[in-house]
């Protein structure tokens, strides 16, 4: 009996070890999330699945998963624009942080399409999106359709914006605003579904 148990342990210890490591990693290191909606198009698409790292130092322009400030049961996926304590200004689609100019190359594709036809073809799946894109004065505006606006990020907070600026409800809006660091759950690192879009994020 003892020999049989010893043989069993010898044969299966590696599998048990791997399972334990995977379980602990799932609890403390990484999680999976499903993108819900179009606010991160074209960087991330609706229904894509990603792995996120829970323990990571956050940097500007990282894509992160956060609890929704309006509904803590909801998860949102956005990009970090403003870090704690910073002053973020947009002026006709140009980003300034504490007075320093920053480029946002991840916006280039949709900005070009917006200038071409106000994203009417791109948003053909949603008349509401078409109307919104056709009425805004710049690609990135605040909730009052102002192309020049400033947001002060409180300490221990981050300003999160979606890449699909015309239709993303994010830190530009009252009730959302800069997100408390305590609500951010991790950084999106790897998209694994659908297979044709497997990539590092």
> What is the ordering of alpha helices and beta strands?
HEEEEEEEHHEEEEE
Structural shape: globular
The tally of domains stands at 1
Taking the sheet with the most strands, its summary is: 8 strands, antiparallel
Helix content: 10-25%
Q: Which topology does CATH recognise?
A: Umud Fragment, subunit A
CATH level-four homologous superfamily name: Umud Fragment, subunit A
Low-confidence stretches: 24-29
**Class inferred from helices and paired strands:** alpha+beta
Distance between the termini: 51 Å
Number of strands: 12
CATH architecture: Ribbon
Total helical segments: 3
- CATH structural class: Mainly Beta
Question: What average pLDDT do the residues reach?
Answer: 87
What is the beta-strand fraction? 25-35%
Tell me what the structure shows.
The protein has 201 residues and is α+β, with helices and mostly antiparallel strands. It has a single domain, classed as Umud Fragment, subunit A. 23% of the residues lie in helices and 29% in strands. The protein has helices at residues 2-28, 108-117, 127-135; strands spanning 30-34, 49-53, 63-67, 75-82, 87-91, 94-97, 100-102, 148-152, 157-161, 179-180, 184-193, 199-200. The radius of gyration is 21 Å and the shape is globular. The termini are far apart. The model is unreliable at 24-29 (pLDDT under 50).
């Amino acid at each position: 009996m003892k020999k049989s148990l010893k043989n069993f342990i010898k044969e299966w210890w590696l599998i048990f070890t791997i399972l334990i490591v995977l379980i602990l990693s799932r609890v403390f290191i990484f999680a999976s999330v499903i993108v819900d909606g179009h606010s991160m198009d074209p960087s991330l698409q609706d229904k894509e699945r990603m792995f996120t790292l829970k323990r990571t130092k956050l940097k500007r322009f990282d894509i992160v998963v956060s609890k929704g400030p309006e509904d803590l049961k909801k998860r949102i996926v956005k990009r970090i624009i403003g870090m704690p304590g910073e002053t973020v200004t947009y002026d006709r689609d140009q980003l300034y942080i504490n007075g320093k100019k920053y480029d946002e190359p991840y916006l280039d594709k949709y900005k070009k399409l917006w200038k071409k036809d106000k994203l009417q073809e791109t948003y053909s799946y949603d008349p509401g999106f078409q109307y919104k894109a056709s009425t805004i004065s710049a690609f990135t505006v605040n909730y009052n359709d102002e192309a020049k606006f400033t947001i002060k990020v409180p300490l221990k907070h981050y300003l999160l914006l979606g890449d699909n600026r015309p239709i993303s409800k994010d830190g530009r809006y009252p009730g959302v605003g800069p997100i408390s660091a305590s609500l951010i759950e991790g950084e999106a690192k790897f998209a694994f579904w659908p297979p044709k879009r497997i990539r590092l994020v």
